[in-house]
Predict the 3D structure of the following.
Amino acid sequence: MGDTHDNLSMIDKAIERLNREKVELVLHTGDYVSGFVIPRFKALNAKLIGVFGNNDGDRERLRSKFGENPNLEIRGSFGEVVAGGVRIALLHGIDNVLLNALIEGGCFGIMVYGHTHMVEVRKEGRTLVVNPGEVCGYVHGKTTVAVLDTARSEARIVEL
């Protein structure tokens, strides 16, 4: 999930849907925006690992809010996550040169990024590239998350 942009009702819907899907881990591509949204993620039945986005202004407050719950972890601007034996790169995606270098380098089985608010699922070499779109719905009017299957290296987009 990503680009939640303080939209509390859509964050709640995303959490409800991810819980129904019985996901084991949630990756957040950033742009929470304000620290007051972070306690909403307590309702997840899974661990959440996130990175910062370009609209995340008060990062110290965000870090503090993440630190209040042991199931929430913020990694900074980039995160490497191993899930299901697969190396996953997690970033917001504001730097296209970096994003493309990570994809083309082939070091990660899955690349998860946000920022564009546009859904993307494609294979680039051996790397599955996934942008879950936007939870907030502010830019494209569609609220989406992606559900990854690391064993099959597949992702599906879920509309909220």
Summary: The chain has a mean pLDDT of 97. Helices lie at 8-20, 59-66, 96-105. The radius of gyration is 14 Å.
